[in-house]
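queue> holo job accepted (pyridoxal-5'-phosphate)
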Amino acid sequence: MALTSGLGGQLSIDLGALARNWRALDKVSAGALTGAVVKADAYGTGITMASKALHAAGARFFFTATVDEGMAVRAAVPDAHIFILNGLYPGAANLYVRQNLMPVLSSMAMLEEWLAKCLERNEAYPSALHFDTGMNRLGFRLNEASVVRDRLQALGYAPQMIMSHLACADQPNHEKNRTQLALFGSVMTQFPGVPASLANSAGLMTGRDYHFQMVRPGIALYGGRAVTGRKNPMAPVVTLHVPILQVKEARTGESVGYGASHSLSRDSRLAVISHGYADGYLRSLSASNTRPGGKVVIRGKVCPVIGKVSMDQITVDITELGLDIPSPGEGAEVLGNILDVDDQGDAGGTIGYEILTSLKGRYSRNYIGDGNLPA
Ligand SMILES: *Cc1c(COP(=O)(O)O)cnc(C)c1O
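queue> job finished
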């Protein structure tokens, strides 16, 4: 594949696959509403295009981390219901009201600030409540549930939704899942009739018990692996091709890259590729003689990175290609059907989420298809 853009690489985002993934998850969680988590620029895929495609696929409930992200969704999808997972930023209530964004309230301070805005305007602006069932990240502590309930009852204010978040959903047999499920159930009894939401992608795949009225998939929409140790059923969404700059031969014993951390154990053919940590190819994908690193696909074959990943380049061993020698300008596949975000995540000692959200701007982006699928 030849690459044309002056930036070199090309990131392709398959909006049709994104839409198909949403619909597949919506089928699995048939009894619940299926939201779409589009935080962090829709996991690196582009929040505007992704939100539009997800809306076309049928999504109406969107979750972002920040207000800025919520505003981006609002601009892309005027009729979206948008929850801001980070909650209410102090002093920002007017912005939420103006943009029709719902904070996911997670502390008494947030709750009181939101209620004060409601009282000031004499309007029950919608919000959700987040209860911490064991993660010690955001959320009211469980012993605050009755205080929150009493406070809301006194004002006649009903939240749109109560939610919690699973710490270990990627391991379906982890006992913490059942513990959190039970604790969430105890919160629900204090808010009868209020829609509830517990499941991220992995929770959604774990079983109906976790679905309640709304599920909140993120990573699975973007083709990433939600559950460990299982075949990933989702369609890949992201493909990344970056150009080969130079092909060269090097001799046994020569070293490659910064720190001379990798020395060649045979005469080798190398390809230097325009892709480095400044492009989101994490430095932890570096290889040395004692530890393998990331890989890329050239001419259909998986080729290992050798030496350190530098800012703008990686060096790849293409000796195994024999005389099938690629030309400068030709593309190397970093993400695609052969190597996906989780393969790169595993190789770099991280997770597909980080690979996706590290995608940067030094390649052109192109979008394939949209969310409008034949039914
Ligand atoms: C990020 C996030 C999700 C989505 O999680 P995935 O594992 O990407 O499906 C759901 N809920 C909350 C609170 C989150 O922070």
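queue> The first strand starts at residue 9 and ends at 14.
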